[in-house]
Amino acid sequence: MSEHSYQHSLDILVRLFKKSKELRKTMNITEHHHLFSNISDILEVSKRFFADLEKRHAEDPLIRDISDIVENHASTHFKPYIIYCSNEVYQQRTLQKLLASNTAFKEALKHIEMTTDCGGLPMISFLILPMQRATRLPLLMDTICQKTSTHLEEYHSAVKALKSISKLVKQCNDGARRMERTEQMYTIQKQMEFGKIKPFPLVSASRWLQKRGELAVCTEELSIFWKTFTNKSYYLFLFNDVLIVTRKKSEESYLVMDYATLEQIEVELLESSEGQLASGSPRSSSSPNMFKVVMKRNSEGKEEQIALLAELPSDRARWVIALQHHKHTDNEDLNKEDLPQVEIIKGHRAKQPDELSLQQADVVLVLHKVEGWYQGERLRDGERGWFPSSCATEITNRIAVERNVRRMERLRKETDV
What we know:
Number of helices: 13
Helix content: 40-55%
């Protein structure tokens, strides 16, 4: 997308959506603010940026360099992007809530989306443009660095611009992540009931959720009969430093059964003969999706073992890798050129904490493959997570693979943010 078409799309978002009186009537002030945040500031920033680019073009149609313009705007004028990106979690939740429960909003929104200016595109495709734009600018500057001879003054100017825009993007990502994690931790703490278990102070600036979900409980007893339990499963909350095992009472209430810090956790894969499902469901006892969590020192300072059953092999793999993440060093020393690479052909928005949101054309190093899912490392910033294999295609050209690795190493070295 050119800067002109990007600015045009922002103008549509502000003029047709944000300033719509009909749409405004369907929501309260807070919802409107969460939905559109400071998008008007983003539009003004884009106009100033485009005006400087046009001025440079007017001076000489054959533009030699724009790095100084990018560096100036990234360090001085692009701060509104940090505010907008930090608001993303509220924006997404507000939009989902309005679409799910506000008929008047849905009707007014549909009317706007069907106008000629919108071209039938949904509002969300306009709302996410600033996030997409911010992440693309470092790649643009890196391309300029690649195409410029290192002994020229323009090269050093491009490197300076690359560092400035990369610093901005990091601030955008950190802001969004911090807002999401903080709110999530307070929400989870309110939903947990410790009962007879010694309370654990959950909220901390250095703690975040890595994975959560329900898993069936297995018994160690071998029998031809299924053993039936009133509660058939545990609901696990895995943070970056602690595992909390609960029973789900409702969608917003969890009774804590036990917990242990990750340094006290061991994980073992169970063969089908080592455990049976603790439920009345007629699942085969030969399920390959079982694993054991050993808490060497639990909430009471004792050793405790829990045998669990995942729904799918991919679920078990994701849980096992997540539980052992703090111990993993096996991929750190690998030659990056030996890892498979994929290009994203269809964007993916993370639905679970251990998933990776991806944009079309992103390049990802694949660390693990399991039944329809990849765990990978996004080339442009090193972020890791799981994503469906269906949204990616493998890069088989060896020259392209090596070029991507060199680009990744250069980006991380030169940006140093």
